[in-house]
Every structure is written in C-alpha cells, then in structure tokens.
Amino acid sequence: CVWCIVKQAKEGVFNPTEGAFIASLKDERRSLEKVAIGKTRVFTAGNVALTLAIRRYFLSYVKFVCDNRIENEIGLGINAYSLDWQKLYKKITSKPAVIAGDFSNFDGSLNSQILHRIPKVINKWYSDGEENARVRETLFEYLVNATVVMGDSMFILNHSQPSGNPLTTLINCMYNMFIFRYCYLILKKKEGAAQTLMDFDKNVSCVFCGDDSILGVSSRIINWFNQITLTEVMATTGHTYTDEAKTGNIVPYRSIDEVTFLKRGIKDGGRRCPLDKETIEDMGMWITKEPNTPNT
C-alpha cells in the first residue's frame, strides 16, 4: 500500500516486494532481422502503490521541469506544433555545428552511480527537510534496484530504470545531462585541457528527451567534441551511441537541416516540424487485428 511504502521510506527502509514491477513482452511489430534472433522488447508495468508514492514526492519537480523545458536542456513536455520548436531551433543553432544521436539498449546500459546522483539534485531543489529527502532517496531505490516479476520468477536488478515508472523520461533526460558532461571532461583530458565544466554551457547547447539528444557545438571545440569522438568515449562508459536515425553512418557534425529530433525535422527556423516520411507512410500499411474489424 502507499502508506506502507512511504512509512518505511521515512525510515530509509527499501522493501523490494512492496514495489515490484510486472514484466511483459511488448506487443509491437519488429523488423524481420530482430524477429529472427528473438529480440522482443520487454516493458515493466509499475506497481500502483509505488507509482502513487513517487508522484506524491516528485511531481512538483516534474511540473517545474516541464514548465521550463528546452531552456533547462530537457524536452519533457515539448510540443512540436507550438513555439517550442522555434525555441529548440534557436537554442541549438546558437552554436554552428549540430550533433544528434540515440542510444542502443539505453535502459540496459545505465550506470548506477550516475542514477544515484539524480535524487540528490531533485532533493536540492525541494530543500524540504531530511525526512522528505530520505523518502525520495529510498523511493528511488525501487527504480535503480527494481524488483521485477516475470512469469513465476522474481529478481532484483542493480542498475535499472523500469519503463513503467512515472519518472522514466525525466530520469533518462537527467542521466543524459550527466553522461554528456562526463564525456566532455574525458575528451577535455585527452585534449590536454583543464578538466572543468565551467565552459560547458559556453561551448555546448543541448536538449534531451528520453534517450534522444540534440546538441549545438561551438567551433572552438568541434574538432575534439563531435559525433565521432562522443561515440568512442561513450563506448568506454558502456553505452552504444549512434546517429539519431541509427544508420551507422557517423560523421563529425551536421547542420540543423540534416538532423531530426524525436523523428521530426527542424525546418525554416523551427517553424516547420516535418514528421519522418517513413513514419507517415508506415501508418497506412497495417491495421490492428481485432474481432470487429472485417477483413483484417
């Protein structure tokens, strides 16, 4: 129950069985290549009591983040049909070179040390006492060390981010903010430059939405902080980072007209947000099979 989870969390007690997630295979179409190797995706349905407890202690922060989207590097709540797309355009094109990318197996590659930094940032924003901070830290344990029920088995993960939790996108966004800055420091070290983030905002403008990323990069650093070097250093952290279309054709950087974000282009100064043509055409090529639809 919600009360049970919160009461224990106030004492810093994490009870795995109270907030278990239920794993299910995702009902979606997959490419023939992925079908052949049995690469079906799994999603985890969140425990209702845990979901309510998390929303109770985190939702004000989520609203704050959404209200300040894009400017705070997070695209959660972005509306492509509003002025948001122009704000995105202006932020990214404040730097001449553009990088856009995506991850493979992002959820399965997350680093627990970085994940544990996220509630500390959130607690600093709330600044509402030790007990509430302890509750949030403990509730976060239900996500990072998630208990998952699959069939008649139950197991606990150790660097998880279950897809059925109410903070999924927020956590992914904040994780990206950390990991890209970490890579920035690593690449600065390779370049022989001082390992500081003091100049990060001066050199990089970025927006993240889940595991999707788009960055504007200054000409001062593009020779060592680019899509190729980022892909290489991300690999050392256990992440597979590639271009947003996952073509595998990695180039150092592109222009804003050549990239997409959330499967949409950024055209005419952000006034147009054309959806990927393949996505549009694909919609009319299939129909969900159900009893009341003839000839499916």
Automatic annotation (TrEMBL):
Keywords: Nucleotidyltransferase, RNA-directed RNA polymerase, Transferase. GO terms for molecular function: RNA binding; RNA-directed RNA polymerase activity. The keyword DNA repair does not apply. The keyword Transcription does not apply. Residues 96-225 form the RdRp catalytic domain. PROSITE patterns: RDRP_SSRNA_POS. InterPro entries: DNA/RNA_pol_sf, Rev_trsase/Diguanyl_cyclase, RNA-dir_pol_C, RNA-dir_pol_PSvirus. One of its GO terms (biological process) is viral RNA genome replication. This is RNA-dependent RNA polymerase.
